[in-house]
Amino acid sequence: MVQVLGAGGLDEIVRALRAQGRTVVGPVVRDGVITHDVIDSAADLPRGWTEEQDAGRYQLAPTGTDEIFAFSSPSTSWKRYLYPERTLLIRARRRRDVVEIHEPEPEAPPMAFLGVRSCDLAALDVLDRVFLDPDATDPTYAARRGDVFIVAVACSFPGNTCFCSSMDTGPTPRSGFDLAIRELHDGASHDLLVEAGSTRGAALLAEVESRAASDTDVARAGDSHDRAVAGMGRRLRSDDIQRAALDPDHPRWDDVAQRCLACANCTMVCPTCFCSATEDSTDLTGTESERWRVWDSCFTLDFTHLHGGSVRSSTRSRYRQWLLHKLVTWHDQFDASGCVGCGRCITWCPVGIDLTEEVAALARSDESVPREGAAP
Amino acid sequence: MTPRPYRVVSRRDDLIDTVTLELAPVGDACPAPMAGQFNMLWAFGVGEAPISVAGFDDGVLIHTIRRVGAVTAALCASVDGDQIGLRGPFGTGWDLPRATGGDVLVVAGGLGLAPVRPIITDLLANRADFGRAVLLVGARTPDALLYRDELEGWRGRLDLDVEVTVDAASPAWRGDVGVVTRLIERAPVDPANTTAFVCGPEVMMRFAAQAVLDRGVPATHVVLSLERNMHCAIGHCGHCQLGPMFVCKDGPVVGWTDVEALLRIRER
Q1: CATH class of B4-89
Q2: Rg (CA), chain B
Q3: Contact B262/A at CB under 8 A
Q4: Which among A90, A97, A278 has CB closest to B81?
Q5: Ranges in chain B annotated CATH 3.40.50.80
Q6: pLDDT tens profile A81-99
């Protein structure tokens, strides 16, 4: 059942979610980018803003309209709200030779995510497979993820670095949400179509002012979806992925290693990269200690450190690990792709390395593949 | 992810950089380990390291630790009565019963003797279940030979063949000199009916596995134990990946046929 929200409908949704005691997180404009943060009302959303994204390039731009969701992938993903950058694992105390170890209860504030794109919905499913494994459930992730209310948004303006339609993850949300919104804006009319994906979503939708969508509205939504698919900036061919995995000594691995700074930006902005390190510290007296889990990246030299050196000491081997894990071995481990096509790793790579271009080159046995559109 | 306190009930200096700790639970014990599994040992305020189980006897865990970094240095510095943290056991075991009825060939290089030690103790406890049993040990020098007293005891038995070789001999050394693969060539086993258990540095394991295969041992009867950086031991931290495997849960003990191709790729 598709409804059309009334004029203040979106704000009513935010208010209803806050009335449930939830912290509402949504896209906001900050520091020259669209990112995610806590919002108090629909007025905090990036109304009138879009962005231009390309390999190694991000530029905020006004739309000149009052559209709210006229952008694609925000600079950050949602993972930090479920799998925080830093998590306290244990606190311990030592008195003479007795050690007491205390595991803190995970902090799990009730949350609502507003504006989740379908690529990021797919990313949540990917993280669920890692952290909700029945044999090894992560308590922090499970506590935070369990109750999150999700308001998804269909993408009408895929960015130049987007390729969700290649990964079969978008641009329109299909499942995994409580409510899904599609913004329709064509000159005279500006409507937000809403669909419930859960019982609690339907209950919340019943609280806000809306009318049933007409056949025309539904047809406009279909057109918007088709335009988004057609406007996808990049694509990744699955048969290329299979071929790219074949030759661990393909010269293109050397080529990309010449450009890659091993800075780990791609893994930080990736909505599915989940690697972490643990860090221990003590107070000055040496009697109190804490153990934290922090985000880590397979691009660091320390990542594979063993006595005698690192297993993957070259940038070439670390880029290869990242790419082949993301696109190939992730399937073996979690029965899903680690890439959802959000394009963030392309946009936020300081030297503009584009994984879709790398895969296409790796899939060819001819080494003289020209690089197109790479940043200088 | 929360360690349980264990008390050091015995500490022994094995080598100049290697210590064996015997650990007893202070409160609730971790489940009993299988031979080949490992525990995460935690030094207060310093960190955790994955350490193979070198023995398990009446609730007491035996861990042999080489001092190679901050965590292992702190663990090696502990003394009788100290408490350390322990989580585990993790990973796959050697599964010695897979060799039942056949010959057993154990090949250990350096500190690799520690993870295979439970194979020998289990084998000797169930000696009638197996055919010939051979332990081949390689070390860099005579001074780097782990568990020397125990090796000499085993070597005195009539139901276990023990051969030891060193890369570089001292003037007093009267044994074999050379790489451990040389011992494989003459190990008294029936290759077609042998299971080989290999543990040591990765390069040594590759050559040892090849030497075992060259003797005619079926590739499916060759198992080894891998080592990788690990922070969580439950497949979450990502550090221990080798291709599709998380060595912490799909290993450390793996079949040669499962990893042969991966180990041949440099820096995989």
Answers
A1: mainly beta
A2: 18
A3: no
A4: A97
A5: 96-263
A6: 999 999 999 999 999 889 9
